[in-house]
Amino acid sequence: MVIVLLGPPGAGKGTQCKRVADKYKLVHLSSGDILRSNRKDGTELGKKAAEYMDSGKLVPDQLIIEMMAGAIESAKGNCVLDGFPRTVVQAKELDKALAAKNKKIDAIVNLAVDDSVIENRMTGRRSCPACGAVYHIETLKPKKDGICDKCGEKLVQRADDNPEVVRNRLKTYHEQTAPVAGYYADNGNKIIDIDSERSVDEVTKAVIEKLDTLSAV
Ligand code: AP5
Questions:
Q1: CA 102 to ligand 1 centroid distance, Å
Q2: Is 48 left (phi over 0), alpha (psi -120 to 50) or beta?
């Protein structure tokens, strides 16, 4: 089963994908996390991706498509996709790759958040470099300040969560990623639109309620 979560930076894709993956026993594949892990390990892909990520631009399609094709293969096609596809080219390649395995996307969820709330979400985000858990300094605090509840690691702030890069990421989203929802709608895919300006738990409830109604899940 393949579920895609779409939405702007800070919409809560990572937060909700982790919960969806737990609920339906799927592998959570975050293109951003895979890229950050490559950077940490100093791989060629990580080195190539760095300058794009730090400026809020998209990493070139070909690099991402190869990276995600491998990840989806490893997950045996049972995954929730977070941050991919992010261009119409990537969406078309994903469709082709799934069709070659007699698979298709089972559900597309679009998390909607107004630009005005995004900067606060991004600059307040803290992440665990060890287990990937995500917190917020106001809305999703860890029990102990600056420490991951799940594994005890010190939380960090992402380098691309500063206001200037966040503005660039939003611009990139509107120009290159927002059209992906239109591509899917034009090709007969039903999009599940979710208001993601509610609390994390309310958004999860709304997403799960919709996914539970789909016979495929
Ligand atoms: P990536 O890591 O994918 O970043 P993003 O899409 O900008 O998304 P984020 O991870 O920032 O936000 P999110 O929607 O997951 O929100 P989260 O749950 O963390 O990509 C980084 C970079 O990698 C890109 O800029 C690009 O360079 C490159 N890249 C990645 N994929 C690519 C691709 N396919 N093609 C090309 N390049 C690619 O939540 C954010 C904060 O808000 C958290 O603190 C959270 O606690 C809080 N929060 C979440 N939900 C709520 C809520 N309902 N109410 C209040 N607070 C909330």
A1: 30
A2: alpha
11 Cβ inside 6 Å of ligand 1: yes
From 19, 39, 86, 126, the catalytic residue: 86
Give me the pLDDT at residue 137, please.
Answer: 94
Is any ligand 1 atom within 6 A of the Cβ of residue 136? yes
Say yes or no: domain 2-115+163-216 is CATH 3.40.50.300. yes
12 lines ligand 1 (CB under 6 A): yes
What is the share, in percent, of the chain residues with pLDDT greater than 90?
94
Banded model confidence at residue 216, pLDDT cuts 50, 70, 90 = low
Domain ranges of the chain: 2-115+163-216
Q: Give me the pLDDT at residue 77, please.
A: 85
Tokens of 96: 């082709």
In this prediction, residues 187-210 reach a mean pLDDT of 96
